[in-house]
From TrEMBL:
<keyword id="KW-0133">Cell shape</keyword>
<dbReference type="Pfam" id="PF07943">
    <property type="entry name" value="PBP5_C"/>
</dbReference>
<feature type="domain" description="Peptidase S11 D-Ala-D-Ala carboxypeptidase A C-terminal">
    <location>
        <begin position="280"/>
        <end position="380"/>
    </location>
</feature>
<comment type="pathway">
    <text>Cell wall biogenesis; peptidoglycan biosynthesis.</text>
</comment>
<dbReference type="GO" id="GO:0009252">
    <property type="term" value="P:peptidoglycan biosynthetic process"/>
</dbReference>
<dbReference type="InterPro" id="IPR012338">
    <property type="entry name" value="Beta-lactam/transpept-like"/>
</dbReference>
<dbReference type="Pfam" id="PF00768">
    <property type="entry name" value="Peptidase_S11"/>
</dbReference>
<keyword id="KW-0378">Hydrolase</keyword>
<dbReference type="GO" id="GO:0008360">
    <property type="term" value="P:regulation of cell shape"/>
</dbReference>
<keyword id="KW-0645">Protease</keyword>
<feature type="binding site">
    <location>
        <position position="227"/>
    </location>
    <ligand>
        <name>substrate</name>
    </ligand>
</feature>
<dbReference type="InterPro" id="IPR012907">
    <property type="entry name" value="Peptidase_S11_C"/>
</dbReference>
<protein>
    <recommendedName>
        <fullName>serine-type D-Ala-D-Ala carboxypeptidase</fullName>
        <ecNumber>3.4.16.4</ecNumber>
    </recommendedName>
</protein>
<feature type="active site" description="Proton acceptor">
    <location>
        <position position="60"/>
    </location>
</feature>
<keyword id="KW-0121">Carboxypeptidase</keyword>
<dbReference type="InterPro" id="IPR037167">
    <property type="entry name" value="Peptidase_S11_C_sf"/>
</dbReference>
<feature type="active site" description="Acyl-ester intermediate">
    <location>
        <position position="57"/>
    </location>
</feature>
């Protein structure tokens, strides 16, 4: 069977959004930064987005989502000596104290307590090392390519396999998973959106109070979640998410200043979020309504029944979804639609048989594709059919017509 490329039906491949993005966001403080479409993981803007760097306490979004997915909020967590001796910032827990997992997750995400992170890791994984293995396995499952976890709290660390590090792109991908794809996304959002939280240890000997240090929650409308981080090696880091008119943006920043430049991360986050909201809109795509020619069917019985005509079969795009599909696109972007369709096929052909493919491409990446299928059956010419047609030429009906 011979295939022919029918061609590009609409649009122009990514025109200039990366260039215009750099023109419009010329000055970022962060050494590495990514603006991501959380719905599909597409990077809308990046500055050294695939460069590996330490990520400080932004690590804790992975610790939190793993604890939510593999633990129960009512679990009782026993504090080990290792957890109790973690450095500041810490809750100040004491060895052999007991806490509910739910309360430690607020301590982890609102105040970024390092001892709570270790206590959670030991409870879920059995040890910090075993929990780190879970973190790395989850990162691979999510689609991270250059992330390596050693600690559950993000303190600078290295071992014979490498340095505790990630990339801005991977960090944005992890946050996207936490807020949109995890089966525990509602719990994650509920915890990270809480302004303050108060709790006691299980035995009610001591009380604790936590305040959310994600100041970005009140800086822009639609902020969903976020996590700050800082170590001397990582500098100020941040990962946050925002929803606006059905669009969900994630910003990840690594190495965004050192003391006394704590506010750099907020300026960068606002700049990137604003750029996303002003330049990217949801547009209907993958319509599946592109015009298609009929396909010639070699040795097929034509619909007309005429012995001397070629058979053709009408085709259609078989969409998996019936509802319109929307894609977040830059105002200068258009999706390229490419149709590959058989020029000629051999009879017999069955209805819904695949005869080609339509692909929707953006920035040289296939966003979606659908099969092109036959709309009806086409039987193969046989001796009986030929004999009947030939006989018709010699035996005219009473009106003098064949």
């Amino acid at each position: 069977m011979k295939k022919v490329l029918i061609g590009i039906l609409t649009g122009v491949l990514l025109v200039s959004s990366p260039v215009s993005a750099k023109e419009e966001i010329e000055q970022l403080y962060a050494q590495s930064a990514v603006l991501m479409d959380a719905d599909n993981g597409r990077v809308l803007f990046e500055k050294n987005g695939s460069e590996k760097k330490p990520m400080a306490s932004t690590t804790k979004i992975m610790t939190c989502i793993l604890a939510l997915e593999e633990g129960n909020l009512t679990d009782v967590v026993n504090v080990s000596e290792n957890a109790a001796r973690q450095p500041k910032v810490h809750l100040g827990m004491q060895m052999d104290e007991k806490f509910y997992l739910r309360d430690l997750l607020y301590s982890l995400m609102l105040e970024s307590h390092n001892d709570s992170a270790v206590a959670i890791a030991e409870h879920i994984g059995g040890s910090v090392q075993a929990f780190a293995d879970k973190m790395n396995a989850k990162a691979k499952e999510i689609g991270c390519r250059d992330t390596y976890f050693i600690t559950p709290n993000g303190l600078d660390a290295s071992d014979d396999k490498g340095e505790h590090s990630t990339t801005a792109e991977d960090l944005a991908r992890i946050m996207s998973y936490c807020i949109l794809k995890s089966p525990k996304k509602e719990s994650f959002l509920s915890i990270t959106q809480k302004g303050s939280y108060h709790f006691m240890d299980v035995d009610c000997h001591r009380s604790f109070s936590c305040q959310n240090h994600n100041a970005f929650l009140t800086m822009m409308d639609g902020v969903l979640s976020g996590k700050t981080g800082f170590t001397g090696k990582a500098g100020y880091c941040y990962v946050g998410a925002l929803e606006s008119r059905g669009r969900t943006f994630v910003v990840a920043l690594l190495g965004c200043g050192w003391p006394n430049n704590k506010g750099y991360k907020w300026a960068d986050t606002r700049r990137l979020m604003t750029y996303g909201m002003e330049n990217y809109e949801l547009r209907e795509a993958f319509s599946g309504k592109e015009p298609l020619r009929d396909v010639t069917v070699k040795a097929g019985i034509p619909t007309s029944g005429n012995l001397f005509e070629k058979a053709h079969v009408p085709v259609k795009i078989e969409k998996i979804q019936n509802s319109p599909v929307e894609v977040l696109l830059h105002r200068e972007e258009e999706i390229e639609t490419v149709v590959e369709l058989q020029e000629e096929v051999q009879a017999p052909i069955e209805r819904y048989e695949k005869l080609g493919t339509v692909r929707y491409i953006l920035d040289r990446e296939v966003l979606q594709q659908y099969p092109i299928v036959a709309q009806e059956n086409v039987e193969k010419i046989n001796f009986r059919w030929i004999f009947q047609k030939i006989s018709g030429y010699y035996f005219l009906n009473e009106d003098g017509r064949m």
